[in-house]
Amino acid sequence: MTLPxxxxxxxxxxxxxxxxPICEDDRQWVPATGQQxxxxxxLRAGEYTARVEDQGPGIVGVGCxxxxxxxxxxxxxxxESGNFLWDCVPYLDDELIGKIRDLGGITGIAIxxxxxxxxxxxxxxxxxxxxxxxxxxxxxxxxxxxxxQWWSGTTKQVGDFTLINLGVHFPGGTVLHWPGGEGGAxxxxxxxxxxxxxxxxxxxxxxxxxxxxPERPAVVRRAAELLAGYPFKAIYxxxxxxxxxxxxxxxxxxxxxxxxxxxx
Length: 264
Hints:
The protein is of the alpha+beta class. It has helices at residues 21-24, 40-45, 94-102, 120-127, 181-184, 217-227, 248-263; strands at residues 5-6, 37-38, 49-56, 59-65, 74-79, 82-86, 109-110, 131-134, 148-151, 155-158, 161-165, 174-178, 187-191, 195-196, 203-204, 206-208, 213-214, 234-237, 243-244. The strands form 5 sheets. The protein has a 7-stranded mixed beta sheet with strand order 3-4-5-6-7-8-9, covered by helices on one side. A 6-stranded mixed beta sheet has the order 10-11-12-13-18-19, with helices on one face. A two-stranded antiparallel sheet has the order 1-2.
């Protein structure tokens, strides 16, 4: 059966439905023209093509052109414990599968928050790998599947990586710390849980980005405290080339301090 994909957020659902809960949530939106649907077969038959580009040392961006739905790109991380996919994109075709396999494939997938769940079950089945999602966001998965491993608590070790539940943006909002990144100086892969903004001297913390709702101060304070114990030079955000290249740890702490001064 052809499975529906929301054209606004990219979430794939297990069966046809009239609404998209992700878009009806106040962190997202339903277009003024109403709910619209597509599917992978339609996307593959259209203008979309695979996009795979280096984003940093041992980190490869994965996505499509032109932009679809939210427009994020995923990151394939080349770690000693095996290639790992951080975040996900809705588009997947034979070209993209071939490019990822040429890079050595992937051993697992983890996702920062529900806006990027996308077609993750398609990805998991294609590469025969597990998906690690935080249980606090279980209600948002559009296509439940046995490939998904729900984890709980504040941290989870997966190979060379530590998943850290910061709770920003969504209760299950998670970042990935790679201590071996940047030649051993450490990298933080943050989606938009810790958002890389145009001014690379700072990052942002929001409950809703499109609707401009700031995150609660207590949540941001906890996030900064949790990240204080992890060294990282670079921060890789959700968008193509959205990377803080230097002083990432200090950037997060500085940004949290400024944020709390403005909103508290």
